[in-house]
Amino acid sequence: MTRIFRSPSTYVQGRNAVAAIGEHAPTDGSHAVVVADPAVRNIVGDPIRTGLEAAGLTVESVDFDGLCTRGEIDRVAGLAEGTDLVVGAGGGRTLDTAKAVGARLDTQLVTVPTIASTDAPTSSLSVIYTDEGAVEELRFHGVHPDLVLVDTAVIAAAPVRFFRSGLADAIATRVEAETAIEAGAENVFGGQSTRAARAIARECFRTVDDPGESALAAVARDALTHRVRAVGWARALLGGGAGTTPDGAAGHEARPRGEERHALGGGGGDAPRAHRAGGRPSRRPGHRALSRGDRHADAPEGPDARGVGSPERGDVAALPAEATG
What we know:
The chain is an alpha/beta fold and 325 residues long. The protein is built from 10 helices and 10 strands. It has one domain (10-318): Rossmann fold (3-Layer(aba) Sandwich), CATH 3.40.50.1970.
C-alpha cells in the first residue's frame, strides 16, 4: 500500500502579506504574468506588481473574464506563453484558471486569494465550467502551488458570508477526511491517505470549533483578532493547505467533491508567517478529470463570486487590528 501526502511548497499569511510577494515567490525566472479581474487588480494589483518587479521580474497583467472554462484557459495560456511565473489573484474561479494555465505551461505558480470561501489557493485542482456556467470537469494537475499568499487584511475586508462559508467547510473537513480514510478511499494522487491527514483534519476541527463564533463576529466588525488569526491559520493551512485537499483524504472515489468544495478561510496577523512543506514537486503533463458533477460550492454569482469585496466594507487600509477577541 502506497501512502501519498502533497501540499503547497510555501504558505505565507499575514496582514499586508501581499506586499512581501517578492520575498517569497519563486523568482528564478525573468517574467511573470498576473491573472486577475479588474476589480481585484484594483485591490492587490499594485503591491503584487511592485513586489515582483523589486525581485527582478518583468510583470504582465492578464484580465480574467469571470469563468474558468476551456476557452478561457486557452486564451490566458496563449497570452502567458513563455512566462516563468503565473500569479493568480482573486476568488476560486480566477485561481482555478491560473492553476490550469500554470500546469499547461509548466511554470511556477503563486495563488493570492481575496475571499475566505475557497480552498482553490491550496489545491491541485481546477473546476472547469461550460460557457453556460455548468460544471464540466474536475481537472487534477498533480501538483500544488509553489506559494500560497494570504493577505488577512484583504480577506477580512471581504463580505462576512465568505468567512462564514470557510468556517462551515473547515468543520466538515474532519468528517470528510475520516470518512474517506475509514473507507480506504484512494486519494487524487493514486495512493492511500496518511495518518498526518487524519491528525491535521482533527486539529483543524478543534481549532475552529471553539473560537469560530467569536472570530466570525470579529470579522463582521472589521477586526483582526487573535481568534480570527487562529481560525484563519487552521482553515487555510490545515483545512485547505495541508489537510483534506492536498492529501486527498476526502478521496474523490468516496466523495467526488472533496477538493471541489473550495472553501479557504483567511485569518489575521500583523506579520506574515511562512510554512514550508518541502521542495517543489516535479510537474507532470496532463491531468486527471472527473466528468460533469455537482455545482461548484463556491457558487455566489455577481462580483463577489470572483473575489471582489463589497465596497461598503471600506478601504482595506483602514481596517483596525485589535489585539484580543
